[in-house]
Specification:
The chain contains nine helices and twelve strands. With 300 residues, the protein is of the alpha+beta class. The protein has a single domain, classed as Glycosyltransferase, CATH 1.50.10.10. Helix 5 (125-147) crosses helix 6 (178-190) and helix 6 runs parallel beside helix 8 (234-246). It is globular.
Amino acid sequence: MKCRAEKVIAEPNKTFLDDGLLPIYISPDRGIGSYATVTFGAMGDSFYEYLLKVWTQGNRTSAVRNYREMWEKSMKGLLSLVRKTTPSSCTYICEKHGGSLTDKMDELACFAPGMLALGSSVYGPADSQKILSLAEELAWTCYNFYQSTPTKLAGENYFFHPGEDMSVGTSWNILRPETVESLFYLWRFTGNRTYREWGWDIFQAFEMNSRIKTGYVVLKDVNTGVKDDKMQSFFLAETLKYLYLLFSPSSVISLDEWVFNTEAHPLRIVTRHDEVHVGQSKNIQTGRTRGRKESLFGDR
């Protein structure tokens, strides 16, 4: 009998759109999306992340192939939301409201470069490189969320206007982990020391602006540096963990053996295989073997 938890994904999958973009609210009775915001930021981010990570934790077998197929559709949808700023051509992800786009990106959406890096092996060599390049472009934007403020700490969200690369919307910083999470993944997949340098810059900004005698505190405003009197638990559980892993050997929680959930808890990739006929090899990784009829990126 299929686990009841599977129905949470099986029902939306029945009506999953070709672009794979799901509104942040869905009807619990009908299992279909309502006329609401589509975002890779607040309230939308974990859905796309878990499509990929459930497939990864399931050892990329046919039993979890539906998650991989849904994730691929969602990445086509993500591409439809990608835009570039002027004059510096920073890459960002729009939000969608009905039929219109808003040039706004949450810092929360900065998990996406890491997700894309992790999922780049899903595709053939050409598309794999393109999706990794997109991850690096988005990571550069997220790093500049930090570098663009006087405190060198990112605001909660950013807006983009013609001729203006980015401006802070909501200006608090609550010690979020998403950008350093992506730097960790990009370091593991590329070995580019730049990602460690960016992570060190962000860590130093936390040390300079958020550290107090008893811990680290939220900033009420990244422009003025005014402090609040609280520390979010995810700063220890996620932000500092990913910074630690960024500077650790790749053998520490190897991504060949573990997958992180959205709260940065490592879960071991299960040991299971697809059923195969005599003469076929085991350990089939569907992401590396299935032929593709069309490119994810088209002519992009």
